[in-house]
Amino acid sequence: MDVKMWTYLIVGLTFALYIGIAIWSRAGSTKEFYVAGGGVSPLANGMATAADWMSAASFISMAGIISFAGYDGAVYLMGWTGGYVLLALLLAPYLRKFGKFTVPDFIGDRYYSNTARTVAVICALIVSFTYVAGQMRGVGLVFSRFLEISIESGVVVGMVIVFFYSVLGGMKGITYTQVAQYCVLIFAYMVPAIFISLALTGNAFPQIGFGSTLNDGSGVYLLDKLDGLNQELGFAAYTDGTKSMIDVFAITFALMVGTAGLPHVIVRFFTVPKVKDARQSAGYALLFIAILYTTAPAVAAFARTNMINTVSNKEYATMPEWFKKWETTKLIKFEDKNADGKIQYLKDKETNELTVDNDIMVLANPEIAGLPNWVIALVAAGGLAAALSTAAGLLLVISTSISHDLIKKQLNPNISEKNELMWARVAAGLAIVIAGYFGINPPGFVAAVVALAFGLAAASFFPAIILGIFSKRMNMQGAVAGMIVGITLMIFYMLKFKFGLFDGGKDAVAGLAKSWWFGISPEGFGTVAMLANFAVAWAVSFMTPPPPAHVQQIVEDIRIPRGAGEAHAH
Amino acid sequence: MSNKNLKDYWKRNLLYLVILLSIWFLCSYGAGIIWKDSLDSVRFGGFKLGFWFAQQGAMYIFCILIFVYVWLMNKLDKEYDVHED
């Protein structure tokens, strides 16, 4: 069977599975729709969190980015895993004890104000839409390459699937679908990684393989070989990277804090029965995530070695089939500048003849390594699982923000449960259409856009939640001022330095890098905006009265695991 | 539960947090970023040590940290009789 048939078969089977699960676990009440009835086991929740968390960016783009960035790629590895330590230690148990449905719920109650709740809803919507746009682009990419249909039709197919199981099943349907999606995506990621590791180094564990010697009898370590190849072509050594230390530091920090502040991740910890389970489930989530994340840098190093060996200084006419296929998607571009018929892949922009998009490295990797067709199809199914699971989680946050935080809590508190559920479904439907629009008119790189969503989450939610738990003195005025300053600063910096809005558009962006504040890129700026949020919140809260006694009691209460009634019986 | 006990419980919790988050900081920002260049002179198989921390080691330690925290807190909850069930 050819790749296309295999892809139809495997993708079709996995989709049938997801829809089957959605029908079996559809939601009947708002509690089931928002938090799966609060009865998910920590292990299942850990797996669902991992799938929810690992997006098209993790699955499709990350290894590609590391492959081109070398050491600098560590910002994504540490940033997107280290956040779980913060989540487990500083947020998840307390928010579970608080025991409401959403992050704006916590902010609204803890800061006793609908203004705070509204600011939180707006932040949640901005973060989630930024993030979901990246997912839809990932879906379109996979469909267009492997099923050879247009990106537009690909996005529409993806929208219909997500619509079906998130609108029908709510959090309950999403949770169990995500468990299945985790299994699909991790299998799809590991199989080619193990094959390639065996082929290149003879070691079945990619994590160890990429620190081993090459299989070709030379006795040279893979990473040393790669450092050499990179330098020959004019790039920095693979294990060194090019970013400044402060920027690496700031990006890693922004991603970590952003992870801990993402509403669609936090809400997952409301679905387990107990505080103890929330802690444990964060541990499982990180464990499941780390399986992929420790493999990704190995895949990156293998892919780079294979790619350089396949293309560098080879005749264009002898390029394998995958090269031509990716050329038609315009994600590989070759321009024979010196007309010698060979491919020169070099750092120097003047003489370099080949551009390869980050996003294709994982998808093309099995083909570059010459693996069987079913493995290639499996990777397509894995990429879709990653993108769809994340998109579904985000859509739920968007629909909950609208039906619960806006309509139920503010506009119409007397709304019946049935109507609230209907609004949740309408909002989810609308959100899917908007997300689909972004998928068809994609705003740039998947990972670049997603990385900015972290900056926004870091700049808005993280300080407000942390202060809400660890400081009894923090009041409404401080938290609201902090969130507004944080997210405004972040949006301003992003528009100025990422989109060049104030300096003549996209073309000006590269030139603006010199004037970055403190030498920190837009991706890392979330760290600065977060610090500004903390500082403003502290300053304002000390100039204004402390929160009322019942709010201080809430803070006392979320700090101990046992149920409120019992814990306060002296 | 008395207020004094509650304060003690919270203090112990904060102490665990400080210790665990220090390790979190040292293995990622320390070994993987700040001291990366000097650690790179040490080899660990085919890995330079700083590079290994940044792309592998830090993540293993993160996992261990969370499970240690779960274990410590479950013990602490029982000790102060604030555990569920």
Description of the molecule:
The complex is a heterodimer of chains A (about 575) and B (about 80). Chain A is about 70% helix and about 0% strand. Chain A is built from 23 helices and two strands. A two-stranded antiparallel sheet of chain A has the order 1-2. The longest helix of chain A has about 50 residues, at about 150-200. Chain A starts with a helix and ends with a helix. Mean pLDDT of chain A is about 85; it is low at about 565-570. Chain B is mainly alpha-helical and about 80 residues long. Chain B contains three helices and two strands. In chain B, strands 1-2 form a two-stranded antiparallel ribbon. Classes of the chains: A mainly alpha (about 575), B mainly alpha (about 80).
Descriptive tags:
heterodimer, A: 570 residues, mainly alpha, Sodium/glucose cotransporter, two-stranded antiparallel ribbon, 23 helices, 2 strands, globular, disordered C terminus, B: 85 residues, 3 helices
Q: Nutshell version of this structure?
A:
Chain A is mainly α and 570 residues long.
List the helices and strands and how they pair.
The complex is a heterodimer of chains A (570) and B (85).
Chain A lengths: L2 H22 L5 H6 L6 H12 L2 H14 L4 H25 L4 H8 L3 H33 L4 H51 L4 H4 L12 H11 L12 H17 L1 H4 L8 H37 L9 H8 L3 E3 L19 E3 L4 H8 L4 H39 L5 H24 L5 H25 L5 H22 L11 H4 L12 H19 L5 H10 L5 H4 L3
Helix pairs in contact in A: 1-8, 1-16, 3-8, 3-13, 4-13, 4-16, 5-11, 5-13, 6-7, 7-8, 7-16, 7-17, 7-18, 7-19, 8-13, 8-16, 8-17, 10-13, 11-18, 11-21, 13-15, 15-16, 16-17, 18-19, 18-21, 19-21
Chain B lengths: L2 H32 L1 H4 L3 E2 L2 E2 H31 L6
Antiparallel strand pairs in B: 1-2
**Main sheet: strand order of chain B:** 1-2
- Largest pleated sheet of chain B: 2 strands, antiparallel
Largest sheet of chain A: 2 strands, antiparallel
Radius of gyration of chain A: 24 Å
What general form of chain A does the structure show? globular
List unreliable stretches of 5+ residues of chain B: none
- The low-confidence runs of chain A, each spanning 5 or more residues with pLDDT under 50, are 564-570
CATH superfamily of chain A: Sodium/glucose cotransporter
Radius of gyration of chain B: 18 Å
Assembly annotation: heterodimer
Could you tell me the number of beta strands of chain A?
Answer: 2
Secondary-structure element sequence of chain A? HHHHHHHHHHHHHHEEHHHHHHHHH
Number of strands of chain B: 2
- Counting DSSP H or I runs of 4 or more residues, the number of helices of chain B is 3
Quickly give the structural class of chain A.
mainly alpha
